[in-house]
Design goal:
Oligomer: single chain
Structural class: alpha/beta
Number of strands: 9
Largest sheet: 9 strands, mixed
CATH superfamily of the largest domain: Spore Coat Polysaccharide Biosynthesis Protein SpsA, Chain A
Strand content: 15-25%
Radius of gyration: 22 Å
Number of domains: 2
Length: about 325
């Protein structure tokens, strides 16, 4: 009995993704994992998704009906799930490298695990150009809640969790449009759920212009910031910089170019920092004076130094010599 594979339910929320749905489902079914339940929760697609789903017969279970968005579809899928280990796979993403088998091995080695976080990669619309998806640190002595606050990036299709733990923390928040995954991982961590790492790259996350996250980045970041305030009472430097850089590029960089960009980005950063963190005066003041930006973006750790800022300020205030 101990050698039986871990039963896993994979919910696939879908809406008008007929061009991707076959590759998504193939990435699950071709693993030949004997204890997987695949539930496609379709939001009433008007493309050829339904015709494609019908071809799978009893290999999958699917429902097509109006819903209130992705979070609602996922919640309804989890409510139907028959197995205690669950995840969701968006209908334009894939699993890879025998993901279900990899999770089964982690569960076998860690029978008290409640949340398993694997590695993943981004890929282009055609599935090419894979590049690593950054992932929080998990392990002995690591505070996962702090990791979620300070970094927060996790490859969503690479996260599996117990349905019992999911129910205990109240399930997915159907009001969230973008960061329902970040909110869920954070609540798992704050509730003291046991996180375990899977070191395999087990998912591919498509990133292209018409995806919700790529096309509405500022809205996504704003929802994450609101979520951080809800759970932690403050916003981390990482997300302050992500938002301030987005605003800088939108309102300044696109119109004035990148001249003195480090200095202007820092001004945006300090302004957004005060705006978001004024509710916690000590944290706000400490961060205002001590936190700074990274030169190349919020993930890259090449922090701007005081000498960098002085050089930038000197260039701004020093009049340019007229050409002879």
């Amino acid at each position: 009995m101990d050698n039986l594979p871990t039963p896993i339910t994979v919910v696939v929320p879908s809406y008008n993704q007929g061009r991707f749905i076959d590759e998504t489902l193939a990435s699950l079914l071709e693993q030949a994992y004997p204890a997987v339940e695949v539930l496609v929760m379709d939001g009433g697609s008007s493309d050829d998704t339904i015709e494609r789903l019908k071809r799978y017969g009893d290999r999958i279970t699917w429902v097509s009906e109006k819903d209130r968005g992705q979070s609602d579809a996922i919640a309804k899928g989890f409510a139907r799930a028959r197995h205690d280990w669950i995840t969701w796979l968006n209908s334009d993403d894939i699993q890879c490298n025998r993901a279900l088998w990899a999770i089964n091995e982690v569960v076998a080695r860690n029978p008290t695990a409640e949340v398993i976080v694997g590695r993943g990669h981004y890929m282009d619309e055609d599935g090419g150009n894979p590049r690593p998806y950054p992932t929080i640190s998990i392990g002995r002595g690591i505070d996962v809640a702090q990791e979620m606050f300070e970094k927060g990036y996790v490859a969503q299709p690479s996260v599996f969790f117990r349905k019992s733990s999911y129910a205990r923390i109240g399930g997915i928040d159907p009001s969230l449009r973008f960061c329902m995954d970040y909110d869920l991982w954070t609540r798992f961590a704050l509730a003291g759920c046991r996180f375990v790492a899977c070191e395999e790259d087990i998912s591919g996350n498509r990133w292209y212009a018409s995806t919700k996250t790529a096309g509405q980045t500022l809205e996504l970041l704003a929802e994450v910031a609101s979520n951080q305030i809800k759970h932690f009472g403050r916003v981390s430097p990482y997300f302050v910089q992500a938002i301030s850089d987005n605003l800088y590029q939108t309102f300044h960089g696109n119109h004035h170019g990148d001249s003195h960009h480090v200095l202007y980005r820092l001004l945006y950063f300090k302004t957004i920092w005060l705006w978001f963190n004024a509710r916690q005066p000590l944290y706000c003041l400490r961060g205002f004076f001590l936190e700074t930006i990274a030169k190349s973006g919020p993930i890259i750790g090449d922090k701007v130094t005081a000498s960098d800022l002085l050089r930038g300020l000197r260039r701004v205030i020093t009049p340019r010599r007229a050409a002879p």
